[in-house]
Every structure is written in structure tokens, then in C-alpha cells.
Amino acid sequence: MSSLNSPAALSIVESSIPDTPKRRHNRTTRIKGRRAGFWVYAGLVVVLIGSLFPFYWSFLIGSGDSTTINDPDFSWWPGGNFLANASTVVTDPAVNFWPALWNSIYSSALIAAAVVVTSTLAGWAFAKLHFRGSKPLLVFVVATMAVPMQLGVVPLYILFADLGWTGQIGAIIVPAITSAFGVFWMTQYLRQSVPDELIEAARVDGASMIRTFWTIGVVAARPAAAMLGLFTFVTAWNNFFWPFIVLDRSDPTLPVALSLLQSNHFVDYSIVLAGVLLSTIPLLLLFVVAGKQLVSGIMQGAVKG
């Protein structure tokens, strides 16, 4: 009789009971009510410290002077020279900080907006428009991600030189208005988040495909589009290789401008890292403003299926 009360027997009996809505609700309540343990919080604290350490290190060196990084009596407390070093970066005529900052904001915003629009349109077509050759074409688009950008730099530069676009900000915007990753991301998201029955109902009601895309596809794609736009903006902001090649030193983006701080024989790393920290402030503000949409996009993508 005692064997019937064993945990194994109880689990078998419980598994044989039909999964009613009440049992699902009770199981969900137990899962939601379960609190994270000590090791979960300890792991999160380690990840947080590891993520914040590069910013603190940059601020630590950026608040010192030219001898701080090689000081044998190095102190882990910040100095008092950060504002002076930041002012040196901003007022340095070789860096041309404010035009470079505007070029980075302008180009990154346009690239992010263009990638979101083109990726959402292409993702809708691949996910919900059934046409011949859609699967091989999607495979080809995804396969282009395996081709490194360095292989196309020479022909791309020759093309823009023939067009007379070298030295202009459009030379870094036009090649980046589409993204193979963005197309794949939006295709997968729209394929899971928009039921085909909803599109068929809209077509039965007389809505055109453009109206269906605008009223259903765009609304459903907002979290994924916000996440894609955020990551595209960060990628375009941090891009150094192609802007360094195609833009003039008199009108660069911010990463290229900050590299001029290291062009001398003697490099003052306190000024360099102060400039690096200044370049990350707009990205931190962007993450603060768009953090809600970012978390929403991650959570909605995680619960699909």
C-alpha cells in the first residue's frame, strides 16, 4: 500500500490525468511563483560587472593623464582630468568632433531606417507571399552573409570613384541600405507571428496586399523591427573599415575621427579613452530610450510557436 504513495507512483497517476485548463493554470502559477536561486543572481552580478568593467576602465584612464596607464602605483580610483581630456578631444582641430558626430548620427539613422523598411518588405514577401523560387532565393540571400565585406572593397571603391561619390557620406549609406541578416530576421519573425488565416480573412474582406501588409504586417513586425533598427544603428555607428577607406579625413565619421588621436608618435591614452567614452554616450542613451522595445522584441520572439 505504501508503494502507491511513492513519488514515482504519484507522478504516473498525475501524468495520466487529462491536462485541463485548471491544471495548466496551476502549473503556470507554480512556475511563475518560483524564485531564482542564489547562483542565478550571482551569475547575473558577474555578467553585470564584466559588462561594466570596460566602461569603468575607459573612464579610469580617461580621467588621468598621459602617465596613468604606465604608472606602477596605479590607482583604481578615477582622477580629476576627465573633463579636461574630453574638452581636448572636442576642441582638437584634427579630430573635428562635432561634424564627425553629426555624420555618424545622420548616416547611422538613415541606414537603420532603410534596413528596417527593406527587410520588413522582403521578410513579408518571403514569409507570406507564395511565389516560385522563394525558398532558393531566401537561401541565396542568407548565403551572402558568408561573404566577407573585405572581398568587395576594391570593386566597390572603384564603382564609387567612377560615380564621383568618394569622400561623400552617401558612399557609406548606399551599400548598407539592405541587410541579409535583416531579411532573414524579419522573415522568421513574420512567419511565426502572423497566421495565414488572418491574411486570408483580410483578403476576403477586400483588402489589397499592400493594405494587408500595412494594417497587419507592419503592426505585427514592430517589436522585431525596433530590435533590428537598434542593432543596425549600433553596427553602423561602430563601422570603421569602409568609412576609413572611402571618406576624407576632413569629413569623417566619429570612429574614423577618433582614430586620428593615435596618429602621432606619442599616444596619450587618457585622451584617446576619453574620446572613446564620449563616442559611447549616444549609444547608451539610445539603449535607455529604446530599452523597452528591445525587451519587448526579445520576449515576443521567445514566446512564439
Automatic annotation (TrEMBL):
Upper classification of the organism: Bacteria, Bacillati, Actinomycetota, Actinomycetes, Micrococcales
Keywords: Cell membrane, Membrane, Transmembrane, Transmembrane helix, Transport
InterPro entries: MetI-like, MetI-like_sf
Membrane topology listed for this record: Multi-pass membrane protein
TM ranges: 36-57, 105-125, 137-159, 165-185, 213-237, 269-290
PANTHER family hit by this protein: ABC TRANSPORTER PERMEASE PROTEIN MG189-RELATED, ABC TRANSPORTER PERMEASE PROTEIN MG189-RELATED-RELATED
All residue ranges annotated as the ABC transmembrane type-1 domain in the record: 101-290
Signal peptide extent: none
Any one of the GO CC terms: plasma membrane
Family from the record: Belongs to the binding-protein-dependent transport system permease family.
Protein name: ABC transporter permease subunit
Subcellular location: Cell membrane
Source domain of life: Bacteria
